[in-house]
Amino acid sequence: MHVPFLIIGGGLSGLAAALRFARFLPDVLILEKHSRVGGLNSYYYRNNRLFETGLHAITNYAPAKTKNAPLNRLLRQLKIKRNELDLHQQIESEVRFLNQEALRFSNDFSLLDAEIAAKFPTSYNRFRQLLQQIEDYDPFRPAPFISAKKILHETLGDKLLVDMLLCPLMYYGSSLENDMDFGQFVIMFRAIFLEGMFRPGGTIKDLLDLLLNHYRDYGGKIRTKAAVSHILYSGKKVIGVELTNGEEIRCDYLLSTIGSEETFALLDKPSPLESLPRLGFVETIFELSPETSLEHSENRTIIFYNSSKTFSYQQPQSLVDFDSGVICMPQNFQDLPPSPFKEVRTTHLASYDQWYNLHDNQSSYNSAKDDTALASREVAEKILGNFAENIVYRDTFTPLTIERFTAKKQGAIYGNPVKIKDGDIGYDNLFLAGTDQGFLGIVGSMLSGVSIVNQHILSRL
Ligand SMILES: Cc1cc2nc3c(=O)[nH]c(=O)nc-3n(C[C@H](O)[C@H](O)[C@H](O)COP(=O)(O)OP(=O)(O)OC[C@H]3O[C@@H](n4cnc5c(N)ncnc54)[C@H](O)[C@@H]3O)c2cc1C
Questions:
Q1: What backbone phi and psi angles, to 5 degrees, belong to 73?
Q2: Which of 201-215, 246-260, 287-301, 321-335 bottoms out in mean pLDDT, i.e. has the lowest?
Q3: Are residues 112 and 28 in the same domain?
């Protein structure tokens, strides 16, 4: 079998890349290892209910009139109308450093601006300078690593404010321990604080179905349960792939969305990239009965919290670091229809190695998951009020779960800390898109797929 354009991975970057290409030529095939698309942002069923694996909120909210905003550019490139998505904006979110300070923010930047003016009055003018730096900076121009932490300390001169600004941006988009490249900081600051967060009206399944339906309407093809075991090549030219069942598929162009090291492994080559620690996370979903009242958070969409003196964003020595994390209430978006259940989702940094040590002892692994859920619930209850008695279902994912279902090395959601921004990994017709190209999250990974297709593939046809 031969196809002009082949894509490994049916996550959001692969789907977006495929849809972009199919608008011009239908000869594209996605190979997805699992029975379902979505990758890190997919869904599963329990008790006849659909659960989302990843969706807290989509960053980069933009009103229709801001034509150049990333979200609107993405929709145009994919020829999807805004009203097909049924966008619901966040109500209000918060960065809360327990016993220290709290900053509220929403999709209206003036809220965060006023919070900083009121709570950090001596740093407010410096914060306005930082905003100017963010506006002036082009994060897409190739540049060596610049420490965002260093720039923030120099500009703001207030450690608490620096940590409070970094906490949400790191949790929603940093693959690096305890720092970010300033370019990535600018991208995430714009995505979360200047633009804001939303979610589609339905579930992630509706979003994935929408993408798949458009793709299939253009004639694009997808095969699920089709895991690639080798990339076939001669010199610098890729010839095709071999699947785990031995089948060969030849292609003119190949796009891999599975990660850089994972792609080198399919080429039977060691990764030439520097090896830095990867960040693992645990996530717990608490499904609550509909009458649950979360007394301290009725209108909060997401709370990024930190309870220790210094905010630390690194792989913990223990299984999980409960000192900081994310608490999301997916029902708290504007004008969402009432859902039959409420949900609280919690995320914390976790150690892949520590979880891996338990992998061949199912009962220890399960009890570590139970302990994690309990500790995470206790942390969340301190902030939200008690909800233990209202829990009707609970599930916890560890870095091992994420690795098992997405083949992402060490279950590291944000992939390799070393990014390949131009998607070029040294082959004439093989490119990398998705997490390891450097755009993170849902909008980021989709834009990554689209931009690699535009830059490297459509331009050559
Ligand atoms: C718990 C959690 C919460 C999250 N919350 C949010 C959020 O609220 N907002 C947000 O914007 N982002 C969130 N994210 C991040 C977001 O999901 C990802 O950044 C994005 O989905 C990455 O997409 P991708 O296509 O780059 O990679 P992936 O989703 O990893 O896609 C790669 C695909 O390749 C497939 N694959 C791997 N190996 C092979 C092979 N050998 N052959 C064939 N197929 C293969 C995998 O099965 C997978 O489907 C979250 C992620 C997680 C896990």
A1: -65, -45
A2: 287-301
A3: no
Tell the residue number behind the tokens 């090549």, with chain if given: 233
58 lines ligand 1 (CB under 6 A): yes
9 lines ligand 1 (CB under 6 A): yes
- Our mutation pick for probing the ligand 1 site, out of 13, 37, 41, 205, counting the most ligand atoms within 8 A of Cβ, is 41
Is ligand 1 within 6 A of the CB of residue 89? no
Check: CB of residue 414 under 8 Å from CB of residue 173. Answer: yes
282 with 320: CB under 8 angstroms? yes
Q: Whose CA is nearest to atom 4 of ligand 1?
A: 54
| Greatest alpha-carbon span in the chain | 66
Do 284 and 267 belong to one domain?
no
Q: Is the CB of 400 under 6 A from ligand 1?
A: no
332 with 358, same domain: the answer is yes
Residue with the two structure tokens 């207030």: 158
54 exposure class (CB count in 10 Å sphere: 0-12, 13-18, 19+): buried
Query: pLDDT-derived band of residue 237, with 50, 70 and 90 as boundaries?
Result: very high
- Distance, CA 39 to ligand 1 centroid (Å)? 4
Testing ligand 1's pocket by substitution, the residue of 40, 266, 303 carrying the most ligand atoms inside 8 A of its CB is: 40
Identify whether 90 is part of a domain: no
Q: Say how many residues make up the chain.
A: 461
Q: Round to whole Å and give the CA distance between 276 and 198.
A: 32
User: Is the shortest distance between the CB of 280 and ligand 1 below 6 Å?
Assistant: no
Q: List pLDDT tens digits, range 27-54.
A: 999 999 999 999 999 999 998 899 999 8
Range of the domain at 126: 99-195
Q: In what order do the strands lie in the sheet with 391-397?
A: 101-105, 92-97, 300-306, 320-328, 342-350, 280-288, 391-397
Tell me, in angstroms, the distance from the centre of ligand 1 to residue 11's CA.
5
Q: What is the pLDDT of residues 249-282, one digit of tens each?
A: 999 999 999 999 999 999 999 999 988 999 999 9
Q: Quick one: which of 340, 344, 264 has its CA closest to 49? A: 340
- Mutational test site, ligand 1, from 197, 203, 258, max ligand atoms within 8 Å of CB: 258
> Helix or strand or coil: residue 35?
coil
Q: Is residue 219 part of a domain?
A: yes
Tell me how far the alpha carbon of residue 403 lies from the centroid of ligand 1, in angstroms: 10
Question: What confidence category does residue 24 fall into, taking pLDDT thresholds of 50, 70 and 90?
Answer: very high
For residues 208 and 69, state if they share a domain.
yes
- Going by C-alpha positions, the residue among 405, 408, 385, 384 that lies closest to residue 395 is 405
DSSP 424: B
